[in-house]
Amino acid sequence: MKLLKFFKLAIFAVALMAFGAACVKEGPPGKDGADGTNGTNGKDGTPGTVTCLACHSGTTMDQKKAEFAMSEHSVGAVAVAYAGGRKDCARCHSSQGFIEYATLGSVAGDILNPSAWECATCHGLHTTFNSGDYALRLASAPVASYSGAAYKFDFKNNSNLCVNCHQARTVEPNIATPGAATFKIASPYYGPHHGPQGNLVAGVGFAEIPGSVAYPAPGSSKHFAKSCTGCHMATFTNQQGGHSLIPSVAACNACHGSNDTEYEHGGVQADVLAKLDQLRDKLVEKGVVSHDAVANTYKVKVGTYPMVQAQAYFNWIGIEEDRSEGVHNPVYIRALLLNTLEALNK
Fold first, then answer.
1. Is 184 strand, coil or helix?
2. In the chain, which stretches have pLDDT less than 70?
3. Spatial distance between the Cα atoms of 94 and 121, rounded to a whole number of angstroms
4. Is 207 in a helix, a strand, or coil?
5. What number of other Cβ atoms are within 10 A of residue 247's Cβ?
6. Which helix (H) or strand (E) covers residue 282, if one does?
7. Is residue 153 within a helix (H) or strand (E), and if so which, with residue range?
8. Do the Cβ atoms of 96 and 111 come closer than 8 Å?
9. Is 84 helix (H, G, I), strand (E, B) or coil?
10. How many CA atoms lie less than 13 Å away from 33 in the CB half-sphere?
11. What pTM was computed for the model?
12. Main-chain phi, psi angles of 183, to 5 degrees
């Protein structure tokens, strides 16, 4: 009996499906609609393959990577190992720290596995995807100075990216304690830090002790006008310039109309090095700096000193650590050295 009922239900279901199919029929197809408007043809230089290949072609990328491999920024061993993981230092001493600072405005904590700089350190995500999109981080806005709240660095070009790190981190003694007769140097590492190049190129932030030589106005140096990139990233020739970041002698010669083979021009470096030695020896004589004769090293002594001596040390160590030997701003650097030596010899 149950089997008979099952067969009846099955026959009913088949009949119902056949009935439904017979009732749902398609009519003849309608006419096609009108064609849409034609799109605009692409152009070279607009978003697409041509723009991407300007940087991402194998030849271009390989060349830039080869140049960058010559740069100390690529190795970064000392800077990264020394301070790359520290929260307060990582923004300039590691790739991760710089990216975090550029993106968020600060570094939240220590970097556990810091690494040296790479393409993505300076070049962020693309923004416009046109031929002018280099996508550099922190390159457009003026950069606040750590050595004087009223001054902002603005090279009017991509060099603003560089000066985020390449500037003094310490205010000179007389600005730190205005009008004080003495100044306490509380650390053997005291000074404007290891990268004060931006200050010297701009001509600001060092101890401008009064003397017989006038200080030039900030930003008046021809090297400020040429900026970091004009000298360090000129056309790559003779293993200099480009992404090697090694200053280009060819670029120097083009500006000076000279045929120099080194960075020495007009005796600037020899003169500055001689005056730096004089200032160092005077600081040793005054007891501000100690000299290890065996290792031939010099280090500031922790202590309280007359203001002018503390300023003199600030200028000496800062110009030493600039490492351009006067080239970055000969007029400003010579004024600092001459006036500082005058003050110590009184």
1. strand
2. 1-27, 39-51, 131-134, 148-149
3. 9
4. coil
5. 20
6. helix 268-286
7. strand 152-153
8. yes
9. coil
10. 3
11. 0.83
12. -145, 135
